[in-house]
Each structure stands twice: as structure tokens, then as C-alpha cells.
Amino acid sequence: MIINLNIIRSIISATALCFCLFNSGVTLAQQNFDDVEIKVLHVQGNIYMLVGEGGNITLQAGEQGVLIVDTMFAPLSDKIFAAIRSVSDKPITYIINTHGHGDHIGGNANLAQMGSNIAGGNTIDLFAAGAGNQAKVVAHENVMASILAQENPIPIEGWPTDTYYTSKKDLFFNGEAIMITHQPNAHTDGDSLIFFRRSDVISTGDIFRTTAYPFIDVANGGSLQGVLDGLNYILDLAVPADRQENGTMIIPGHGRLTDEADVLDYRDMLTIIRDRIAYRIDQGDSLSQVKATEPTFDYDDRFGLNSGTFTTEKFIEVIYNELSIRN
Amino acid sequence: MSYLQRSRFRFSLLFILSFAFPVQAQIDLSGEWGAVFHEDSDERRPGPEMVEYQGIPINEAARRRALSWSPSLLTLPEHQCKPHPSDYGSRGPSNMRIWKEIDSESQQLIAYHTRIRWQAPERTIWMDGRGRPPEYAAHTWQGFSTGHWEGNVLVVRTTHLKQGWARRNGIARSDLSEFTEHFIRHGNIMTQVVMVSDPVYLTEPFIRTNNWKINLAQQIPPYLCETVTEIDRPQGEVPHYLPDQNPFLREHADRYNLPLEGVLGGAETMYPSFIE
Ligand SMILES: [Zn+2]
């Protein structure tokens, strides 16, 4: 069966709708998640990818417990928990947030409360009241700041318990080094990229998605150059196996499982688009003149969005503004 | 039982058994196949020239993208060891081994495997009726292939492809592409018909044929690819041509005295009527 472009477009616009929802502050109770199924894909080693509605979840499971990266939307928490249970019966010990968008942190509170800290039994009293009774939530401190700035923030139980403000944070869990690196001013100002070193899997958050051009959330500190720096960093980290395939596997914020070659094509595309727009700016073109040159035309049928908050037009505008300021 | 009776019994048992099990393969494709280049030789061996897009049903997006493609892209280490995707592999140095994977108990054909010389891609064509991976599974250079017999023709359907190329001069083939193949064996000659659909870059299916001749003496050598940084570029630099700045725009057209619109491709350039 040939994949119908209209189906792809409707999937993409459904994704865009999600962005729309949390950007406009509409409560998620209005969105119906009844038909959403949480699907589990074993990636390699200790790592699984959970796909449903909203950002992909990365799941690491082992002897010590369960670690998840991102939590989708709150109404999906029970289904996500059931999906986790299909892989492991250990408690959720860590939640890591790649950034502060509602489709990635919505289930934080529910899932944190379904979990427990490494501390237990007698040692719980050694922690602040109750802190041992739920999973730790790890995020860059700008995620905390963005939650605090929201009109309807997620419940306090889902707020990060463990923030970092430097360029990186390391964990060792389930026999595996987990390297969390801050990707400054990329999709937002609070992006973390998570590298599971033993399993050889990278969880990218929304710096990378296979469904559309990147959503550059300028209002929350995002920039194209930050996204490109993040993608180049992924290319540095990832090592493909034989025939430029597999090896390091890469879980995108949205879309299908990938490896270095997929990130490479995406990085190449964004760099080419940036260079085209930069060249037109150097020639003295206005925004409308740049738009008239259709700098994304050859990629639009694959990655362009005509509806939602972050349309292709908006994408071009954001790049134009960013590059104009730099000049 | 007399000898005659016994052999009759064996014969009828054999007869019954031959009906009891479905006939899996009408014809065997296994063997060492030497590539035959009588068709499209210039494109397949020395390779196409820059801005030589004729004969491919590309759309305007594919054309513009190809015009921005610089061969220097292939100097980037991450691009160096890419094998041809399975819809293109037969076009290159495509000496090929085909072998069967058989279930030892039932003797049913589970899969055909192929290995092609250049970059040594190995491919599996599942013949056991298994389902496709989900849409969120990884895409690969060889994709996910399933086959079935239509008479003596092996028909193969492939999905889950990585982004690839329709021609080696920058004509992109998207990761949403799928393709169907027909493998047709006539004794020692085999023909493959490849029909690629691409909702992103093609306006109609792109159809090519390739041929092989059995070669009992063929040995496919090992193929090891190691990336080498020959040009030290700043991190993140991607070689490409800006719009309207491709220095090779007219090179091929001028060399062969062809009108530019003829070499820029599109479905109409596939048909002889275009020349008139
Ligand atoms: Zn996001």
C-alpha cells in the first residue's frame, strides 16, 4: 500500500494540534484520549520506545527500577503505566524531562506518584516528608522556570525535584551511564538530550522529530542555531554500525525510531534552508522577498505544515528574524 | 506386498503428499548472479552527469532539491559508507548472491537473502507471510521486504526505507517511498522489474529493469568501508549549491546539444513523444 500523503498530513496536523493546545493554554481535558493506544517498541539493550499521543517516551528498565524520559499527557498515565508494566514490574524511580512542553511533561505528576524513590522503608524519614514516596523528576532548571511561568501549570507533584543548571548531569542507573546534556536555546531554552551509554541509545526530545520541521519555540528561548547545534552534537555522539546503519539508535521527540543517517539528512536539510535564507538576507531581501524565493519548497511535502501554530511560513519567519538579528 | 504393489503405494503416497503441502516456490532464484549491464550502461557504470534528470517522473520539489545537490556532500564522513538502498542496489556494481533460508523441520521457505557486491548490503525477503513492522519502527537502507509467488514470478513489496536516491546525481527518493519488484527467471537469465512510488518526489511510479546472468564461478569479495576525513570542514558545514547557482546547470545539456527543459526531468521526459 502506498502511504497516502493526506494521511501523513493529517497525522502531522494532529501533532500540530497538540502544540496548539498547550501553546494556547487550552485545558487538555477537552482532548479525548480514549482511543489512544500506548505501543511499546524494544529499541536495544535496556531501552524501549513508547508511542502514543504527544512526545515519545523513552523507557529504561533494569534491576534497579524503571527510568522514563517524558510522560506525554496526563490522561494517558494509566495506559502508560500499563505499558511500563508489560516490560518491568519494578518501580518508576526516575522521570527525566527533555523540556517543559505539555505533551512531554503532562503525565509527570501521575507517573511520579505511581513510582518511588530509591529510598524506601526506614530511610524514607531521612528525606523531606513524602519525597521518597515518588519518582525523582530530573530536568534542566529552565524547565522548572517555564512551569512556574505557566498560567495552568502541571500539579506540583510533577514538578522537577532534581534540576541542573550547568551544561550536563550524569546518572548511573540499571548498570548504565546516563549522560544528560543541556542543549542551549534549541527547541526551547530547557532542552536536555539523554544518552544511554551502555544501551547506545539517544533520546533527543523535540530537537529532532521525523514528522515535521523543528518547532522553534522562540517565546521559550528556542532558536534554529540551537537546534542545529543539538543535531550536530547528536551526529558527534552517534556511531553507526556496519553499512552506516543502526549502531547508536536515536529516539526522536515525535515520529519513528531512527539512527544517525536519519538525523544526518534532517541536519543537512535545516543547514541548507538556513544557508539559503542567510544568503537572501545578505542580498538585502525583506521577509516577504525571502518567502517569495520558497526556501523550503523542496522539503515541504515531507516536513511542511500548513496548519497549527508552527506552520512552514512561521518556520521561515523565525529563521529570518534570527538571522537578521545576527547580521 | 509385491514389489510392484509397494512401488505403487509409494507413488500414490508421494502423490498425496505433494498435494498435502502447498507448493511454496515455483522456481528457485538461489545462486551466484553476475550483473549484466547492457541496459542503461552509462548511467549505471560511469554514472550520470550533473543535471541529467531526464527519464525520471520527478516533481518540481525533486528538481529543485537535485539542483542544490553538490557531490562534495559525499566528502562528509557520515555520508561516505552509505550503501545503495534496495530500490537502487541493482543499478550499481550489482553482482549478487541469492540464498534461501529453509525451516529444517517443515522445509518451508522462510526467506530469500541477497548480498550485492558494492557496499555489500544484505537484504531479507520474507516469504513466510509475516506482517510488517509498525510505522514507528526504524527505516533501513534495505527496508522491510515480503515476497509471494505469482506463477513463476517472485513479487516483492518493500516499505520502511531510509531516504535514498533515484539517480546518483542528487535526485532524492524520500523515506515515505515504497516499491514493488518482480523477479523473473528464464533459465540462466534473471530480470528484475522495480517500480518505485514516492508521494514526496515522484508524480508517477518510476519503473526500471535490471538483468543478471548466472555465474557459477562468481566470488563476491568482502567489502569493508571505513570513513576518512579528507577535507577538514567546520562542524555543521553542509556542501550544497544555492538556488540558481549550480555551476553545472547546462553542462550536460550543452554537451549533448539538448534543450535544458529536456534534461530537467519529469514524467513527460520518459516518453518518446517528448522529443517531438
Ligand atoms: Zn516540545
Top keywords for this entry?
heterodimer, A: Metallo-beta-lactamase, Chain A, 7-stranded mixed beta sheet, 6-stranded mixed beta sheet, disordered N terminus, B: alpha+beta, 9-stranded mixed β-barrel, two-stranded antiparallel ribbon, binds zinc ion
Task: Report on the architecture of this protein.
The complex is a heterodimer of chains A (about 325) and B (about 280). Chain A is of the alpha/beta class. In chain A, helix 6 (about 225-235) runs antiparallel to helix 7 (about 260-280) and helix 7 packs across helix 10. Chain A has one domain: Metallo-beta-lactamase, Chain A (4-Layer Sandwich). Chain A has helices spanning about 5-25, 75-85, 100-105, 110-115, 140-150, 225-235, 260-280, 285-290, 295-305, 310-325; strands at about 40-45, 45-50, 55-60, 65-70, 90-95, 135-140, 160-165, 170-175, 175-185, 190-195, 200-205, 250, 260. In chain A, about 35% of the residues lie in helices and about 20% in strands. A seven-stranded mixed beta sheet of chain A has the order 1-2-3-4-5-6-7. A six-stranded mixed beta sheet of chain A has the order 8-9-10-11-12-13. The longest helix of chain A has 23 residues, at about 260-280. Chain A is built from ten helices and 13 strands. The model of chain B is unreliable at about 15-25 (pLDDT under 50). In chain B, a hairpin with a 2-residue loop joins strand 9 (about 180-185) and strand 10 (about 190-195). In chain B, strands 1-2-3-4-5-6-9-10-11 form a nine-stranded mixed β-barrel. In chain B, strands 7-8 form a two-stranded antiparallel sheet. Chain B has helices spanning about 5-20, 40-45, 60-65, 75-80, 250-255, 260-265, and strands at about 30-35, 95-100, 110-115, 120-125, 145-150, 155-160, 165, 170-175, 180-185, 190-195, 205-215. Chain B has a domain at about 30-215: Lipocalin (Beta Barrel). Chain B has about 280 residues and is α+β, with helices and mostly antiparallel strands. Bound molecules: zinc ion. Zinc ion binds near residues 99, 101, 104, 187 and 206 of chain A. Zinc ion binds near residues 99, 104, 187 and 206 of chain A.
